[in-house]
Specification:
Blueprint: H1 2-25, H2 38-48, E1 54-60, E2 63-69, H3 74-77, H4 79-82, E3 95-102, E4 105-112, E5 119-127, E6 130-141, E7 145-154, E8 158-167, E9 173-181
Antiparallel strand pairs: 1-2, 1-9, 3-4, 4-5, 5-6, 6-7, 7-8, 8-9
């Protein structure tokens, strides 16, 4: 029974993230502001990773499992990243942008000006070779649930997704996915 409740709460949380994405972020595909195009970046990464394998560790509360996957649909794997775009015209002016350059490394930080925005921050680490790392913080809240996701992508290395959800009348759940490209 506990596992059914756990699975139900995870599904509700994931569904909630996807359902409210367009409401909070405008029309997808309309990229007329000057913010970094997260969706475009990950679509290019999907093309590069087409034939790669991943070692994936999934941790759900205190249970964990590690798998070696050789047939991966990166559109599904990267869904939380792909739904994190802030480059729609509806979001123009909704984020502050701070850029710091040290020793040929650029750090670009996008921070939401409003708590209601699902994507609260995006941090991009860029070297002369291209983007090295992207960190995304997503938050979502309603009367029946709250959810936080921390997404980290390391170019040519792997990615991690750390999620915490609380659904009304249920115990909080925590999940982690750590994947390494092989």
């Amino acid at each position: 029974m506990k596992y059914r409740i756990l699975i139900f709460s995870i599904l509700i949380s994931c569904f909630s993230f996807n359902c409210t994405s367009e409401q909070n972020q405008g029309t997808k595909g309309n990229t007329t502001n000057s913010y970094f195009d997260v969706t475009g970046f990950f679509k290019e990464e999907i093309k590069k990773l087409e034939d790669r394998k991943i070692e994936k560790t999934v941790i759900l509360n205190s249970l964990n499992q590690t798998l070696l996957l050789d047939s991966i649909d990166f559109e599904i794997e990267f869904a939380p990243f792909l739904s994190s775009s802030i480059s729609q015209s509806a979001l123009t002016g909704k984020y502050t942008v701070d850029t710091t350059i040290q020793s040929n490394i650029s750090l670009i930080n996008y921070t939401a000006k409003e708590e209601e925005l699902k994507v609260q921050s995006i941090k991009i680490t860029k070297s002369p070779n291209g983007i090295e790392q992207i960190d995304i913080l997503k938050k979502s809240e309603s009367l029946i649930y709250s959810s936080d996701q921390e997404l980290t992508y390391n170019s040519n290395k792997g990615y991690s997704i750390v999620s915490k959800q609380k659904v009304f009348l249920f115990e909080p759940t925590a999940s982690q996915i750590h994947s390494t490209f092989k």
